[in-house]
């Protein structure tokens, strides 16, 4: 009897699987094709502002549908535990693939040159430790009027880089890439601590590795503060998730320590405690698995006390909240939260994080196609995903991550930013985007091989966006080198106490910060840091009659 029933059972299972494939995965792929046919032509027309607003609208639809799907229980979803995990060796191979993807995506940034704030930081960190870094610990960063930022660990990192690389720009870019790889690994192990399936963990790490919105944060040396805060904050959350799963006190202590280091890198890490609390309070599968409230509330004491202590230390050191200030009354711009800020937080910031394309870079039909297909895939995911109980909670957590991470820099998103000039502020929030997409993918495509194929396809599409964005930085790097070359040609050996009046140097090139600041130190850098040389521009309050005029208008592309 058993010998007869086994083939029947196997055949029935095969038919069920085939029916599920036809009703789910096939419809998912068809939806991508149909949506791509609609979105790709739209992405090819219009100017940068049109394309920016188009993908902003798509992102609003995406987040609205995702939120709705996470709140409504699907009749077709089964509330099971986490996806069954693959052998550890396969997970390790997947992590390695994500690391390789991240390294390959940014390998072309290694030869790039210094630009903008880089020269300001070099001017500082070339000095002795007690002059360059120690005042950042005791007083904070001074902008000429007030102490506005408290980022001593970020400056210590640049100081250490200068001891290694001096004026060799590729060395600093290598450090940035290593920090990016550290963050990719953090994303993978965080997902593991959430007990997601290995395919989902690998997909999250791979997607984060090649999200186009992160190009500025990883390519620009001046964004070292953002990178350090993001990497340390990510690993703080990883250890917090491990503590939540295992109860090991060592993980709890590491989570607190890494948070302290993160806020010493940049104030954006103050979002981490919000995610700690969301993680601890996130319901688990089944009420029987939840410990008593008193037991769950004990970790919250440290998660609240340590951030308060660090914030008090910041207030005491800076003499206030710090940050950029309004020109009218000198109040911190971060406290000016109005309707435009809310629109920026709810619409522009998540839209830029999801579709982080530099539309000011020269129009590229290949990018338009890749962006259209990517948007089609993301929309199809939120339409066809059938998240179970655990994944609905993780989706909600990711949405909190995305929106909360933009809050400290809400003033950057008051207006459209098609060139991603402020995209560095979205670096930490982009991790929530990557995990969100990976979870939706895992709940849409149940077949492991097909899920892996979709993850690779998404990464290839995103890789196109990364390469497109890097091209803008490559051009800015070439222009920065040209400025140095022109200086050598026009003034190979300037007299003592020379004053240059420089024209034709733009502040921004295709969304890339070129010389909004740092031009004076760039000139001094060229002449081996001669402190007797001064630079004036058309924005200077006073221009000496003896100033040496230099025209550095960039060449046409």
Could you explain the architecture of this structure?
With 557 residues, this protein is mainly alpha-helical. It folds into two domains: 2-476, no CATH class; 491-551, no CATH class. Helices cover 64% and strands 4% of the residues.
| Number of structural domains | 2
Radius of gyration: 25 Å
Order of helices and strands: HHHHHHEEHHHHHHHHHHHHHEEEHEE
Average pLDDT value?
A: 87
Largest sheet: 3 strands, parallel
Strand tally is: 7
DSSP summary: helix tally: 20
Q: In what order do the strands lie side by side in the largest sheet?
A: 6-3-7
Shape: globular
Give unreliable regions as ranges: 1-9, 76-87
What is the SS-derived class? mainly alpha
Terminal residue distance: 78 Å
Q: Which key features would you list for this structure?
A:
single chain, 557 residues, two-stranded antiparallel sheet, three-stranded parallel β-sheet, disordered N terminus, mainly alpha, 7 strands, 2 domains
Write the layout of secondary structure elements.
Layout: H1 2-44, H2 48-71, H3 88-106, H4 117-125, H5 129-132, H6 134-138, E1 141-142, E2 147-149, H7 152-165, H8 169-193, H9 198-209, H10 215-219, H11 224-246, H12 249-263, H13 272-281, H14 293-318, H15 339-354, H16 365-384, H17 389-405, H18 429-444, H19 448-490, E3 499-503, E4 508-509, E5 512-513, H20 519-526, E6 534-536, E7 548-551
Parallel strand pairs: 3-6, 3-7
Antiparallel strand pairs: 1-2, 4-5
Helix pairs in contact: 1-16, 2-15, 2-16, 2-17, 3-8, 3-9, 4-7, 4-20, 7-8, 7-11, 8-9, 8-11, 9-18, 9-19, 11-12, 11-13, 12-14, 13-14, 13-17, 16-18, 16-19, 17-18
